[in-house]
Please model this.
Amino acid sequence: MPSVYIKTYGCQMNERDSEAVAAQLVAKGYSLAKSEATADVVLLNTCSVRDFAEQKAINKMQNIVGTARSEKRDQIVGFMGCMAQSRGQELIDKLPDVDLVLGTQKFHRAAEYLDELLAGTRKKIVDVAAEEKSEATIREHLLNGSAKTSVSAFVSIMQGCNQHCTFCIVPATRGEERSRTIPDIVAECRELVARGVREIILLGQIVTSFGKRDYPGLDGKSGFVQLLDAVHELDGLDRIRFTSPHPKGYGDDLVEAYARLPKLCESAHIPLQSGSDRILKLMHRGYSREKFLGIVGKLRRAKPGIGITTDIIVGFPGETEEDFELTLSLCREVQFDNAYIFKYSPRRDTPAAEMPDQVPQTIREERNERLLNLVNEIAAKKYDAFIGRQVEILVEGPSKKNAARYTGRTRCNRIVLFDGSTRHQGQLMEVKIERTGSFTLYGDPAVVNL
Model:
């Protein structure tokens, strides 16, 4: 049977989609190649959030095609995911050697289409059409393959986004919000736990929007909190996380869930994007600076020690120095544990790309550096505060950089490295923190409680 290599760009949802495709192909007899050089099929799962991500995928495909041609190798190559969805036939027009373009609602068709291409019954396939119930098709897992280990697993609970932020192309590439049923999600989680998974990470483009149409409020609980309750009941599951939410989804019921549900980890990634109300309004974010600060305050009162991270865009059209200073001041006030900072990137067919007062690239670069320095300074102090503390970690496996070290995560989502062995993998254990690195904690094995 043929071998396949899948390279993934972008977010955790893309990682999950790639894992599901790989699992589907393995189930049909495909093997997983270690690189594109040895694969019969190469698939690039793409991202469209920034232009850089698209260009990176296109350049990679050009290199793959060029190498295969020079070595006279027959190879099926294709694009999947968000860029495939937004560009469709244009990708084959630009790169005639591409055989397959698969949209975001068609991942489950990958095996079927590859079989046809390999058999020669079809020459080129472009499928970016919408498909009903596609949100329930991403459920296969490759726990011991090239994706996540069996300790932790992503579970996709919905597809699409209805937010329509003015900078974002995702509603066009992922479609409208479509949620799976709670029983279907719980059944998938139960299967994963039976296979040794101890931590579930619930995924959605805006995960807190889950079930808005299908699960109206019950006893003051949103559909998403009803789902958290249901997953929490699973025997053998130790931890629950979720990403990515929207600040508008942090109602009192979700805040209260952090205090009420022991398995829900005290970790929250809440995308801010800007500390300026004027810019937030231009972005169509639907909340204010004051509202965001209120959410953080409620979470910290409900769960002291909660880790809070965020996303921030610098250089959005019209952002003045005063607007940027408001973002800096909010970061100082909140004291984020980490922040993922993005220089604004115009995306075609989005309102922000046509807005006046586009910020020059040099200013975007300068603001990015200033904000990054502040975030790193704050984070270093917060990480140093862990020295001497004993923390619980879930051990995920060997470190990618040093096989002699093992890695785990605290409940508040800090990475911890320690000198370990295979017997530690998948274990919940206490580690005393001895020192810190860049966004990393180090535990001394001499004080590990086994």
Summary: DSSP finds 13 helices and 19 strands in the chain.
